[in-house]
TrEMBL record:
GO molecular function, one term: hydrolase activity, acting on ester bonds
Annotated keywords: Glycoprotein, Hydrolase, Lipid degradation, Lipid metabolism, Signal
Family membership: Belongs to the AB hydrolase superfamily. Lipase family.
Organism placement in taxonomy: Eukaryota, Metazoa, Ecdysozoa, Arthropoda, Hexapoda
GO BP field: lipid catabolic process
Organism: Drosophila kikkawai
Annotated protein name in UniProt: Lipase
Lineage: superkingdom: Eukaryota
Domain Partial AB-hydrolase lipase residue range list: 37-97
């Protein structure tokens, strides 16, 4: 794990040593396929939408309106919004293709599928009021993703589709941000039919994720380390790193372990059940760029053993929150129907921490431990068995909900 960290640092340092390196000029839309292009390449219809948040961020949201196997395309369908994790983007639910990809599986089951992108990732790096180079462009963590981006995307999707509520599936940070929304913007719980949390990092005191544990002494509490790194783009998807990954991961079987290390850094210590043929594609689309504050906020969760707002240090906390300690999120506000899924080999969202959740959640419908003891953080998206172990189950629960409504 530490090896992975050093590797990334070396990579970024190498990139920075190049004259033309500018971490901010880096939206390689031409170098890679967009989510819409990936969807269309498999014969599914795709749409690309732009959602502007109240604070000006422009989020690129993709849609598979229906499966090509379902002929009446214009028919009203139940809606699902699928949200990616840290360092990731909408591509992650598409990479394993129509057989195993959650987005395709939902479309084939009769759903209108939307794929979100959080502010700052390679699809959502635009703001109508602030240039991407503005020092405050990157002043956000998953608090803003959960309290601003998710509500904006949900409102937009419900308006376009004419639906009153939707299903939600999140992976990793896609869950953390959902927990933020449900507790901080509780009025949104009524817009959720069911929500499926795949590997949710909420409480993190027991995390064994190496990057978090190793950096906690520096970034776990406000201080010089945090101040230096705060409010910046972290691991941007830029053409230099892109090219390096493309060449190293696509053509060199000998370097597969190097590429695995990159995937590990993003996904946690268990390579476990990962479909290795996907690694080049994973490396091509990740890391998709985050604000350093997102990572710091997770490290704070580990250090404090609490799920609470971003810690700016007591002086700024007083200014922002009116109290010296960041207030905790009130999980008792999350009234939407919650389904939790976790793996025993997952260092970031592990059983001990997840076991604190049930008594705090008022409407928990399912707490599911994946039976395979080797199931890790990334397996929820990329395992060879993901359809059978996760996707079918999530979709069955969604359908049961919709069929229940139709009966009443
Ligand atoms: C791995 O993913 C590729 C690409 O989607 C797919 O063709 C292959 O069948 C998968 N391998 C397994 C063992 O599922
Ligand atoms: C940012 O979004 C605005 C509003 O949608 C758009 O007019 C502008 O072209 C976008 N800029 C970039 C660089 O994509
Ligand atoms: C670890 O998990 C246990 C059980 O849920 C919890 O009581 C404890 O606070 C957690 N954190 C640490 C640092 O032990």
């Amino acid at each position: 794990m530490l090896r992975g960290t050093l590797l990334i640092l070396a990579l970024v340092a190498t990139a920075a040593a190049f004259d033309d390196f500018d971490p901010f000029i880096d939206i390689p839309f031409k170098a890679i396929k967009t989510s819409a292009e990936r969807i269309e390449a498999h014969g599914y219809p795709a749409e690309s939408h732009f959602v502007e948040t109240p604070d000006g961020y422009v989020l690129n949201v993709f849609r598979i309106p229906h499966s090509p196997s379902l002929n009446n395309g214009a028919q009203q369908r139940p809606v699902v919004l699928i949200m990616h994790g840290l360092f990731s983007c909408s591509d992650c639910f598409l990479l394993n293709g129509p057989e195993d990809g959650l987005a395709y599986n939902y479309a084939d089951a009769g759903y209108d599928v939307w794929l979100g992108n959080a502010r700052g990732n390679l699809y959502s790096r635009n703001n109508t009021r602030r240039d991407v180079k503005h020092p405050y462009f990157w002043k956000f963590s998953w608090h803003e993703i959960g309290s601003i981006d998710l509500p904006a995307m949900i409102d937009y999707i419900l308006e376009v589709t004419g639906e009153k509520a939707l299903h939600y599936v999140g992976h990793s940070q896609g869950c953390t941000s959902f927990f933020v929304m449900g507790s901080y913007r509780p009025e949104y719980n009524d817009k959720i039919k069911t929500s499926h949390m795949l590997a949710p990092p909420v409480f993190m005191g027991n995390t064994t994720e190496g990057l978090i544990v190793a950096t906690a002494p520096v970034f776990g509490t406000p201080g010089l380390g945090t101040t230096l790194l705060e409010n910046q783009v972290f691991l941007p998807q830029n053409q230099f790193i892109q090219r390096l990954l493309d060449t190293t991961c696509s053509n060199q079987p000998l370097l597969l372990s190097y590429c695995k290390t990159l995937a590990l850094l993003w996904g946690g210590p268990e390579i476990g059940n990962l479909n290795a043929t996907l690694l080049p594609q994973i490396a091509e689309t990740h890391p998709a760029g985050i604000s350093s504050n997102q990572a710091i906020h997770f490290i704070q969760s580990y250090a404090s053993n609490e799920f609470r707002l971003y810690d700016w240090g007591s002086r700024k906390n007083l200014e922002y929150y009116g109290v010296a300690e960041p207030p905790p999120y009130d999980l008792g506000q999350i009234t939407s129907e919650l389904y939790l899924y976790y793996g025993l080999a997952d260092g970031s969202a592990n059983k001990q921490d997840i076991s604190r959740l049930p008594e705090l959640l008022p409407n928990l419908a399912l707490l599911h431990e994946v039976p395979d003891p080797t199931w890790g953080h990334l397996d929820f998206i990329f395992a060879t068995e993901v359809k059978k172990v996760i996707n079918d189950m999530v979709i069955d629960y969604s359908k049961a909900y919709d069929e229940g409504i139709n009966k009443n």
